[in-house]
Structures are given as structure tokens and as C-alpha cells.
Specification:
The chain is mostly helical. It has a two-stranded antiparallel sheet with strand order 1-2. A two-stranded antiparallel ribbon has the order 3-4. The radius of gyration is 18 Å and the shape is globular.
């Protein structure tokens, strides 16, 4: 049995008017409605309460709700804008909007910056960068020695930390990304520009067949 009795009368917690969400994001009203179908599927995959929990989010992306994953944790934290441990529909759409091809360059740069700011200090520190490099290598099924990872961190700081204070602030990050645009290449998901068919399997990797919108 599904989570919802009637699409027209039952709404998930945190559901917002598609017209409002479309006005605040690059999505059209019809695309927001399509995203709602995807949201319902993810939010009912494990805990059937109409909210996306970390286990469901990780399961949707990586098919594993128990495995500790720093990269998934960071993405979940940024989607969970209210900081209450779950993602509601409004948060889901607004966060996905950053990955839309028509989203602003600045919004993508800021999202990527916050991704690396593990301790929420407003700066990217060496240890945070090192941890994220390891996490990204792990997600890519790549393995580098600690010495090579240190070289990556050293090179990044030598280029980005032009103030020389041992940390990368937002101004430095913007300058660094402008010289290395590939850093935010993954911040754009082309298929979000045309949400009309079933979503790619790597977005919803569950045992249930992909919903057709």
C-alpha cells in the first residue's frame, strides 16, 4: 500500500504551492508537480511519513541506508535547510533547483562552498578539504595514497588561500572556482531542464520501478 490515499487531498508535511516554488526556482509549475511524485517515492521508501530521512536519502542515491558516507551526509545537511533532520518538499525542490542548468552561477558556487565547510565556520580549512577529497575519491571508487592527497590539499591551498591565513573564505573560493570551473561541473544536472519522463535510475535507486511522470 502506498503512503497517500489521494493525490488531490493528501499532502506531505511541508508541501508548498507549486506556483510559489516555481516562482522561487528555475522549475516550471508542471516540473514542480513532477518532482512531487519523485519526492513521494523517496519519502516513503523506508519511513512512511512523507518526509525524506537521511536513510532514505542515502538509499535513493547509493542503495545503502546504513553505510556511513560523508559525501551523502553533507548533501543531506544542505538539503535540510531547517536543520530538523528531515527534508520536506519545499526544501527538496529549492535545493534541487541549485542543480538546474538555469540556476545562477553564484548559487552553485555557494552550495559547493558550503559542502566543504564541514564545521560550519564560514571557512574551508585544510582538514575539511582533506576529508572531502577522501570522500569524493571513495565515491568515485578511486584510491590515492595519503601523500598524494596531501599534495592535492597543498596545491589547492597554495592557489586558493591568497590571503595566506591557512583557510579559504568565500571570496577566495569564488576566485579559485573562476580559475577552475570544473570544480562546480557536477553542480549542474542537465536532465533537470526537462522533467517529463522517468528519472534516471542513479537518482532513485530503489527496489521499486522508477515512477513515470
Amino acid at each position: 500500500m502506498g503512503c497517500f490515499v489521494s493525490k488531490s487531498t493528501i499532502r506531505t508535511p511541508g508541501h508548498e504551492d507549486p506556483t510559489i516554488l516555481a516562482a522561487e526556482t528555475p522549475f516550471s509549475v508542471s516540473e514542480v508537480e513532477a518532482l512531487y511524485e519523485l519526492f513521494k517515492k523517496i519519502s516513503c521508501s523506508i519511513i512512511k511519513d512523507g518526509l525524506i530521512h537521511k536513510e532514505e536519502f542515502q538509499f535513493a542515491l547509493f542503495r545503502n541506508q546504513n553505510k556511513r558516507n560523508l559525501f551523502a551526509d553533507r548533501i543531506f545537511h544542505l538539503f535540510d535547510d531547517k536543520g530538523n533532520g528531515v527534508i520536506d518538499f519545499g526544501e527538496f525542490v529549492r535545493s534541487l533547483g541549485v542543480f538546474h542548468p538555469n540556476a545562477s552561477y553564484d548559487s552553485k558556487v555557494l552550495f559547493a562552498y558550503r559542502l566543504y565547510d564541514l564545521r560550519h565556520t564560514g571557512f574551508i580549512e585544510r582538514e575539511e578539504l582533506k576529508m572531502m577529497v577522501h570522500a569524493l575519491l571513495f565515491e568515485s571508487n578511486l584510491e590515492l595514497s595519503d601523500d598524494l592527497v596531501e599534495l592535492i590539499v597543498d596545491k589547492t591551498f597554495s592557489e586558493a588561500d591568497f590571503k595566506g591565513d591557512g583557510k579559504i573564505d568565500l571570496e577566495e573560493w569564488k576566485e579559485f572556482v573562476s580559475k577552475n570551473p570544473s570544480l562546480i561541473k557536477n553542480m549542474t544536472l542537465p536532465y533537470l531542464k526537462d522533467i517529463t519522463l522517468a528519472f534516471p535510475s542513479f537518482i532513485v535507486q530503489s527496489d521499486v520501478e522508477d515512477v513515470e511522470l
